[in-house]
From TrEMBL:
SUPFAM superfamilies for the chain: Protease propeptides/inhibitors, Subtilisin-like
Keyword Metal-binding: yes
Alphabetical GO biological process terms: proteolysis
Keywords, ordered alphabetically: Calcium, Hydrolase, Membrane, Metal-binding, Protease, Serine protease, Signal, Transmembrane, Transmembrane helix, Zymogen
The name this protein goes by in its record: Subtilase family serine protease
Pfam family, one: Pro-kuma_activ
Amino acid sequence: MRSRLFSQLFAPVILLASAFSPVGQAAVQNRIASAVNSGVRNPLPGTVTGRAQRAADLGAAPADKKLESMSLRFSMTPAQQADLSQLLANQLNPGSGSYHQWLTPEQFGARFGLSAADIAKVSTWLTGQGFTITRAARSNTFISFSGTVAQVQQAFGTSIHSLSVNGEAHFSNVTDPVLPSAIAGVVTSIVGLNDFKPKPHLRARSAASIDPSQPHYTQTLSGVTSHYISPADFYTIYDENPLLTASTPINGTGVTVAVMGNTDLNAGNVLPDANIAQFRTAAGLPAINLKLQSAIPAGGSDAGVSANDIDEAHLDIEWSSAAAPGATILYVFSSNNIFADSLTYAIDNKVAPIITISYGLCESGWGTAMLASYNNLLALANAQGQTVVSSSGDAGATDCDGVGLATEGLNVDFPSSSPYATSAGGTMFSGDVATPATYWSSANGTNGGSALLYIPEQPWNETTSSAGLGYNDGTGGGAGGGGASAFFSKPTWQTGTGVPNDSSRDLPDIALNAAAIHDGYLVCSSGDGQGETPCANGFLSANGNPNVFGGTSFVAPTFAGILALVEQKVDPTGATAGWLGNVGPTLYGFLNGPTYSSVFHDIISGNNSVPCTQGTPNCSNGQPTGFTAGTGYDQAIGLGSFDINALVTGWSGVKPVGTGTGSGIGTSISTTALTTSASLCAVSAGTLALNVTVAGTASGPTPTGSVQFFVDNVAVVGGTTTLSGGTASYSLVTSSLSSGGHNISAVYSGDGNYVGSKGTLLSPVSLSYVYYNGSTPVTAYPSGSIASVDIVSSTSSGKPDFSFAPATCGATTTVQPGATAAGVTFTITPVNGFTGSVSLTATNGDGMVATPSFSVSPVSITTSAGVSTSFVVVASAPTTAARSMRPGLRPFGRGPAGRMPWYAAGSGATLAGLCLLMLPRRRRWGALLAAVITISALTAAGCGSNTSTTGGGGGTTPPAGTTNASPGTYTFTVTAISGTLVHSAQIAYVVP
């Protein structure tokens, strides 16, 4: 029986969807042909989060545990995606009749959502499974519901387990769900099957007591002077004062900025909030116009104030309102998941023209289904005229890593990597180091400011003492996130001087100060953990301590506030037509126009490089990996920081780029798969044979056009080939490549029927899906971990080198806790007359409690014969060492992302790079093929799979002073080094 709540929630949506259907657009067609039943089922890949894959499995979760924030997120048809893409371009094109004609949620649903009839069928099925409908999407893009673990497992055919991550209790699905075939083709993901939360992008600096009588809140540590940034300093450095002090102030009046939160603001959510009021008083600002909006689903529980999130909430509100002192700040909060609840509510209800979110996770940690769903949500925001500003992350160019040496390689943060969000990166002040008196006054002003003028900047990088200009006191650190997306292709508007020719969405877009150490921001927050009353004495506590923070968490809300100034300036009436939508075309319009140099500070020195472990991805030589600032755009700070007054006053005169005819995505979706039959471990031949297959819709024409090949995101000269029958072959010359690991990808150009797409070379067939299209079996493209092709100097090059490979490329070994795994044999074979000593190292970024060793290390090569060594792992370690190995959330960062699935079937977490599209597509194969029959093989890191098992029973009881490895899947990177030559391979260990 359909629930009464469903009738109450959905009846208005169905009526509104009909009433607001845009003129000239046909009503959406029904896509579910018959009543939903639980007969034939299709899997929904990409839903097991990377953090669950690395967690210790504690067994099945309690059957009666309630899951409150679940939702089915609906996909669009290729025709709807193409229509939306062109609409988004037209809405930003001043020459189009659709310019700034923003949609309501109901109008969006009538054009791009699921039909009312289909929503009714899905809802009937959900309630028939015992679920309670908790929220109806005004945009017809999702249905929210709640239920128990038992109901979820029965309805979706998945397993919900209790997990432990660094001592924190969690739950998650550990296998991908399956859906009735009638609805599988219209669902992108199921949100809410785990309780892992994205982490805030802030860095706390624990400052010692300071004397408030000292000038400009100066603190001297080891002879180094630090300055803390107040709103008055921000106004001076970035030139906002002319706007605030104008006869008609441009301060954000009449504009609302929505701040996304994951906690109550205070006990009972009572306004005014004391922390925010004290901040405004200390800054000399009038009382804030603050409103609260709960996004907790109907029947959901409010967890109250979260100690892990309250600092983020206060700084986001305080600094968005500091940048726009007259704006209304709407704090949208939830308890379970900021994306599933807060962000979804803010967009589906079109609560404000500008949204800021300072939470994120590296792309590979989301799972492809979640990326697609939330990218769809951000596209909805843009179509409604909403601007979404997102922090780019605080781990530099290696977003999947926290503090310490990076091991996960170059990665970027989502949602910052979405083409529908503005990515906010970080800078740090550097010009005041030699002559601080030039830039800072000797006394505080009335409102706590002492900055005198703009201070030259470099990319924020406090990961090392040298990168951080000597200001690393051990309590801050971090660097601004940036790099190339592994999932999203480059939007048409991201163009201009310095923009990489990598066919990928690059980030960040803009940057402002984000330093935690030199120089951090002042915040008033009760979450200081010191038992003090914050801001009891101006910006200082009663004991003289300030709350000092850094991180790109500051850049997103401050830029959101600056956009409120832009909106007020562009349209003082506050009309909806004055909303800005996606500001990317205008920002890059500055880069391509005559005013760039007068508006932006083009920072051309410094980097966001992070120290890394030699031999791990993107770290062949052991030097920090990342990106360097340069002329125009770069992946360290984007377009740079800017003069706020010049940006706001010059906004209307900028010509947006990438919004003209033909700037849409295309008419249909394509997918690109790149494969090779060669082993990817120790490639010593002069060429590598590559094969590309580009596919479109099942009933559509065969894709035509060309494919460009890339090595490490750099286009191969002459590396373009033409498709024939949707396929192409190419021989990549490897003799010109440097020795060591390389990532190889292919980009399809698109044609009159299909949008372009991008595929990355994966390990050989390690996971395949067999479908039936009618009576014809069809095997989908193979999936696996992204392959790092290990290039060894070929005979033709004549360069001395050596190959380094395990007996079986990409081996997977099972070892019981406390037992010793079977040894993995590596052979080092000289090439082109190589001789010398080869040292061996093993790195495990997953935190496995283990004791690794080599039977021979270093290995001496004195003849033309190869020498072997055995790599052995004991699944235990002394307790004191084990404490430092525990997997989990790192300070100031997100937990480690999964590189490889730990359950046999359908994780999909390693689908990164199969297909990069600016628009997310619906579930990869559901629109094309009717039903999944089998899922075969396991995904393994490296170049293939081989499984061996050692240790019996349930493991051994550890002796006193020893800790056994926890259940999970762990990947070791084994590296051989001789001088500048570096080769590595990965071995996976499964601890049951």
